[in-house]
Amino acid sequence: MELGIIWTVVLCILGARVALKWLLKNTNWWLHERRLGEKQYSLPPGDLGWPFLGNMWSFLRAFKSNDPDSFISTFVSRFGRTGIYKAFMFGSPSVIVTAPETCRRVLTDDDCFKPGWPRSTMQLIGRKSFIGISYEEHKRLRRLTAAPVNGNEALSMYAKYIEENVVSSLNKWTTMGEIEFLTELRKLTFRIIMHIFLSSESEPVMEALEREYTTLNYGVRAMGINLPGFAYHKALKARKNLVATFQSIVDERRNLRKKSVVLPAKKDMMDALLDAEDENGRKLTDEEIIDVLLMYLNAGHESSGHTAMWAAIFLEQHPEYLQKAKAEQEEIVRKRPPTQIGLTLKEFREMEYLSKVIDETLRVITFSLTVFREAKMDVNIGGYTIPKGWKVLVWFRSVHLDPEIYVNPKEFNPSRWDGFTPKAGTFLPFGAGSRLCPGNDLAKLEISIFLHYFLLHYQMERLNPGCPVRYLPHTRPTDNCLARIKKCST
């Protein structure tokens, strides 16, 4: 009798566990798929994970391990190599696309897709920044800001300033002993982008802003939990401090204009934003100006600093590539007229091998692992339906590390670019389509100038060459590349 009761209790517990597990695994289906009716049967393969958390736990677990690509690998192993999977990411039912052609379609089809960044990211970067505004407003602001950042005249003007700062920084680092190479590079690239947008600010202001940006970025790829101790909570505080600083700068500029103070003939990006108006004479509000500034200053220094660091690391790890890149730079200097001082844009465009080094670094590292879009209508891709309102994550890492596109994809090999022109959608370091990163040429110029002087006159001694790598918010050594920078003996 007692044994029967015990078995009944055990069976009830097991049944309850099975029922609870079924309920938990199917809650997101009930909330997001069932309402689609017949369309749910044409969704891509995949699963929406646990209630509310979705697949975020497995995503964070993978990216905090030494194998971040295991996240997508689990989809491939369970559902096949379809290149498109349903999931629940960053609080929304989503579709992850990993095939080049599908990625290109999502990025370039503005009729079917719009920006779809998570609400938490929008709160950090700004709803009036490029990632939040409409297609028409984006086109207007891009026209306004692209030429002063990427135009030939602008690049010629900024090259000298970049060069001066690179030379002085490298020389300074040799006197500092142990440095966090990444931290110093980010300070350098931040100084450059600050000059472009705000002409100049004091060193303490720049350092304070750069620290706030570091905190902000840790929150961008974190779960949007606004509680003390969580990265997102700290990031919101950082944004508040950044907005306050930029507001004071905007106020000061506006006051100078009201007082008719004679301003420098050369305009920076802040002046351009203050002067901008549409066909109806409407000028940008303070919120619009600050959000554009906040986004540009962030994107304009993070990617350049990280890419320059990884290029230097990879070249130090591969002496044969380092010597080839250095020989190219030496040849550029050798052909230079004796009266010429410093680099020219013509010389920059002659750096064919160095350009391959940078492209290979961008591919291997994939600074931005994904971008977010949202379906404006039901969209059919490859026989699968992406429902209206669902997010679409363009997963750059899977494209750049696809062994069917790049042989031994995790191997750093600039020579793979010899005579190789990537097909559309297979190389997306700056995105694609109308929302292609507007600062891509400036970024490559910065990195090239830095590597030019670094290769010619300096070498790096890493203190922890076996240091583990962290993948969020961006790929970097956990010690920020602790190193000594030394002048070359020859």
From TrEMBL:
Which cofactors does it use? heme
**Principal subcellular localization:** membrane
Which pathway, per its entry?
Hormone biosynthesis; Plant hormone biosynthesis; gibberellin biosynthesis
Q: Which domain of life is it from?
A: Eukaryota
Task: Cite a single GO BP annotation.
Answer: gibberellin biosynthetic process
Note the topology in the membrane: Single-pass membrane protein
Location comes to: Membrane
UniProt keyword list: Heme, Iron, Membrane, Metal-binding, Monooxygenase, Oxidoreductase, Transmembrane, Transmembrane helix
- Secretion signal span: none
Q: Which Gene3D superfamilies match?
A: Cytochrome P450
What family is reported? Answer: Belongs to the cytochrome P450 family.
Role, per record: Catalyzes three successive oxidations of ent-kaurenoic acid giving gibberellin 12 (GA12), a key step in gibberellins (GAs) biosynthesis. GAs, which are involved many processes, including stem elongation, play a central role in plant development.
What's this protein's name?
Uncharacterized protein
Name the species this protein comes from. Carya illinoinensis
